[in-house]
Design goal:
The complex is a heterodimer of chains A (253) and B (559).
Chain A lengths: L3 H7 L1 E10 L5 E10 L4 E5 L6 H9 L7 E9 L2 E2 L10 E4 L11 H8 L8 H14 L15 H14 L4 E5 L7 H18 L3 E5 L2 H7 L3 E3 L7 H8 L17
Parallel strand pairs in A: 3-8, 3-9, 6-7, 7-8
Antiparallel strand pairs in A: 1-2, 1-4, 4-5
Chain B lengths: L5 H24 L14 H8 L3 H30 L12 H6 L2 H12 L4 H5 L23 H23 L4 H10 L4 H30 L2 H6 L7 H9 L7 H38 L5 H32 L17 H5 L1 H35 L6 H12 L2 H15 L5 H26 L2 H9 L4 H12 L1 H17 L2 H6 L7 H8 L5 H29 L8
Helix pairs in contact in B: 1-12, 1-15, 1-16, 1-17, 1-18, 2-12, 3-7, 3-9, 3-13, 5-7, 5-13, 5-24, 7-9, 7-13, 8-9, 9-12, 9-16, 11-12, 12-17, 13-24, 15-18, 15-21, 16-18, 18-21, 19-20, 21-24, 23-24
The chains are: A alpha/beta (253), B mainly alpha (559).
Chain lengths: 253, 559
């Protein structure tokens, strides 16, 4: 155990999450509970259609209520957030595609997420953006058009944008999937280094075992059918409480 | 190869009348009009125009209603789309779009006038119990008001649904869901997220539609005849009035007014382009500030709700005309008719039938030609793997950007010389100028988006290119082709000025009859024409949606 109870409160906790497609009896996700301490990466694996991305949408607050029925509690940093709109949850999310806004420069994209409530001064804001870019080996990229960046550069800018918005937890929706092998490893260690450095509780969804291995955390297998509470407790292993404390001894199936 | 000639032919069909028409409008504006004795070049027509009573006010009215409508229409459409970004339930209101889009401007203007006039539906609904009026209030001017507000309102009801549709269509090119999710994960409220992250990506694609709205609002004639003040009227109405006067010497100042109309539209478009850049810079500043103000969210919601109310007024306006057409007597302040009748439909049946027949014949012919030319151009483009450029798009939009009044008079001059004025074929051709762009624009996307593997598989099975076209592409595209035809048909039914000029006033369609009757006719007969003006295009839409279902009902993949 690295986090302890206080660490868990700072982390990301899911309690009994169930998601179903409306009008279908079978649950996409059934009674899933888990917790991720700050700075750790929990990996969820499963074939496509197993509801991995849907789970992330629910946590981030984008689940379409017309299509899905979902329940369960989500706690980030000791606060329940499932009733909040997406923009107030402070949960960062990275998708498989970079989703950089093509109408803004690289700096414009980073400034977009930099909260005005916290940093008002224009020069200070620009300095923060330049520092972030420099830290990622992208010094001088401020005025570039995002569409002229390479795949790896786009991926890094997207992560920087999310980090600058000061999220309290990070969701990764197969963000390495479209990068080629060499880039993938490089970007992966870039992401995980930032996660550790900032102590972000992180949930990674992937179908690539190499991702899970690199994350060096607990791995949960979402099978094609249903994840039941009993099964999760069994998987994670530490007792009967619905929120099972995680042992961070490495990945297991 | 005939197919290779398709783009050139299309260009001639569209371009020749516009170029010749413009020339024969601009030349008389400088005094050159041999047919009635003008052989020298002079500035006299302009002096007459500038000196005509109320000219300055007419000019001002044209500018305020035209530019005001465009700015408000864009705001309303954007507000509505931003609002639907987080209230998907509002999207159900989309079902109100087809009638609003299909109804011709003049029908909408007639209905809108009845809703807002002092003796109209809105006042009736609150009278006499709330207002105490048991006769229409005198001194209250709500239609044809001197500021042109009722014209702006009527134009908005017509133009906002069009812009909303264009924004929806352009949204298909942008990963809206992911973009919104990314912006909201970065802390933006939904409507603001749409404004900051989605709209700037869409704007370049709706620029031409916005320009079409600007050109239309600056130079509209039929709606202005019904809703704009008469003395002085907007410039385009003034020109139309002089053109149709018996005094031939008025042709010169009329041509000058029509040419000035063209100048206004060109200047308007240039001004719009000029302020786009500074607004974009300010917009980027706003986006990069990273603010999360609730004010924008509230403001967009307010605009969105106003837009919904406006659309509601449009639907009510159409319903009002439908009720008039079957009303026996409908005295103020009653909210519903005192009695009902169908006798007017019967007694005017023959006459109405003829007019409907003429309207449908002109529309169907124009649409058929437009569809053939469009498909030929698109097939040619695909066979020669051409990439559609922006120039082609601007050329297609040309008929929607050049004010009708600025070239239709010239077209009439040319038609008279050819001895073709007042013939049905002339009317069809002039209708085609406006039908073709809409058919092309609605059909191009589905045609280009058709999965190329269908054609490739067919070719691999040994089918010739023509067989692929007729046996694979056309059947697969049945629905979009029919929908494009329905759109074109609705456009044709709505044309007023083209039918009036090319038909030399001798060919009566639903729209020309409705506008003619609008000044002082029996409101119940007016109701009949307005209902048919909307109903006939709506029937075409319904047929376009229903036919493929019937033909392909055995194939789930097509239906």
């Amino acid at each position: 155990m690295t986090g302890g109870i206080s660490g868990l409160c700072q982390g990301l906790v899911l309690e009994c999450i169930s998601i179903a497609v409306k009008g279908e009896s079978r649950d996409l996700v059934g009674g899933l509970s888990l917790s991720v301490p700050p700075g750790q990466v929990l990996t969820i694996m499963g074939p496509s259609g197993s509801g991995k991305s849907t789970l992330l949408s629910y946590i981030a607050g984008f689940l379409d209520p017309r299509v899905f029925a979902a329940s369960g509690r989500i706690m980030v940093g000791g606060e329940f957030i499932e009733y909040l709109p997406a923009e107030d949850r402070h949960v960062g999310i990275l998708f498989q595609d970079p989703v950089l806004f093509p109408h803004l420069t690289v700096a414009g994209n980073l400034l977009f997420g930099l909260r005005r409530g916290r940093w008002r001064d224009r020069r200070k804001r620009q300095a923060m953006v330049s520092d972030a870019l420099a830290s990622a080996g992208l010094a001088g990229f401020e005025d570039r058009d995002p569409s002229t960046l390479s795949g790896g550069q786009k991926a890094r800018v997207t992560l920087l944008r999310t980090l600058l918005s000061q999220p309290r937890a990070l969701l990764l929706d197969e963000p390495f999937g479209k990068l080629d092998v060499a880039l993938r490893e490089e970007f992966r260690s870039f992401v995980f280094a930032h996660v550790r450095e900032r102590g972000l509780p992180t949930l990674l969804v992937t179908h690539d075992p190499a991702d899970a291995e690199a994350a060096a955390g607990v791995v949960i297998q979402l099978n094609d059918v249903v994840v039941r509470p009993s099964r999760i407790v069994e998987t994670i292993g530490d007792g009967a409480s619905p929120v099972a404390p995680l042992s961070m001894s490495g990945s297991r199936r | 190869m005939l197919l290779r000639l398709a783009p050139a032919l299309t260009l001639i069909v569209l371009g020749a009348p516009i170029v010749l028409g413009l020339a024969w409008t601009v030349l008389p504006a400088f005094g050159y009009f041999p047919a009635i004795g003008g052989t020298g070049l002079t500035l006299e027509p302009w002096r007459v125009l500038f000196a005509s009573p109320g000219f300055e006010r007419a000019l001002l009215l044209t500018l305020t209603t035209g530019i005001g409508t465009t700015v408000l229409a864009l705001l309303a459409a954007v507000g509505f789309c931003a609002m639907t970004a987080h209230r998907p339930s509002v999207l159900r209101l989309r079902s109100a779009l087809p009638p609003l889009l299909a109804s011709p401007p003049s029908a909408m203007a007639l209905g809108f006038a009845f809703v807002i006039m002092p003796s109209g539906w809105l006042v009736r609904l609150v009278s006499p119990w709330a207002t105490g009026f048991d006769r229409p209030p005198i001194g209250l001017v709500t239609v044809q008001d001197p500021l042109g507000l009722s014209l702006i309102g009527g134009l908005l009801v017509k133009e906002v649904p069009y812009l909303v549709l264009m924004i929806f269509a352009a949204s298909a090119q942008v990963p809206v869901g992911h973009t919104l999710a990314a912006a909201r994960a970065l802390g933006q409220r939904p409507a603001t997220a749409w404004l900051k992250a989605v709209f700037p990506q869409i704007y370049p694609q709706i620029r031409l539609p916005v320009f079409a709205v600007l050109a239309f609002s600056l130079s509209v004639v039929d709606m202005a005849l019904i809703l704009a003040p008469g003395n002085p009227p907007p410039l385009a109405v003034l020109a139309t009035r002089w053109f149709s006067n018996y005094d031939l010497s008025l042709y010169y100042p009329a041509a000058a007014a029509a040419s000035l109309q063209l100048v206004l539209v060109v200047l308007g478009l240039l001004a719009w382009l000029a302020i786009e850049r500074p607004i974009a810079v300010l917009g980027c500043r706003w986006i990069e500030r990273g603010g999360r103000s609730q004010v924008t969210q509230g403001l967009t919601d307010a605009i969105g709700v106003t837009t919904v109310v406006l659309g509601g007024l449009g639907v009510i306006a159409l319903a009002g005309m439908a009720i008039w057409s079957v009303a026996a007597a409908w005295r103020f302040p009653h909210a519903l008719p005192d009695g009902w009748q169908l006798s007017l439909w019967r007694t005017h049946g023959d006459q109405i039938g003829t007019v409907v027949g003429t309207t449908a014949a002109i529309g169907l012919t124009a649409v058929t030609i437009a569809a053939i030319l469009t498909l030929a151009c698109l097939e040619n483009e695909q066979r020669r793997s051409l990439r559609p450029g922006t120039t082609a798009l601007w050329l297609l939009y040309l008929p929607l950007l050049v004010p009708q009044i600025a070239f239709l008079f010239g077209v009439q001059v040319v038609l008279i010389r050819l001895g073709l004025d007042g013939t049905t074929s002339a009317v069809v051709w002039v209708n085609l100028i406006f039908v073709l762009p809409y058919v092309f624009l609605s059909l191009a996307d589905p045609f280009r988006a058709l999965d190329p593997r269908y054609a490739a598989s067919a070719a691999a099975l040994g089918a010739s290119r023509w067989r692929v076209f007729f046996a694979v592409k056309l059947p697969l595209l049945t629905r979009p082709i029919l929908v494009a035809c329905a759109v074109g048909f609705a456009v044709s039914v709505g044309q007023y000025l083209p039918t009036l000029f090319a038909g030399a006033g001798r060919i009566a369609t639903l729209t020309t009859e409705a506008v003619t009757l609008s000044s002082g006719g029996d409101r119940r007969i007016l109701g009949i024409y307005a209902v048919l003006q909307t109903g006939v295009p709506l029937l075409a839409y319904a047929a376009a949606l229903w036919l493929p279902l019937m033909v392909f009902r055995r194939f789930r993949g097509l239906a």
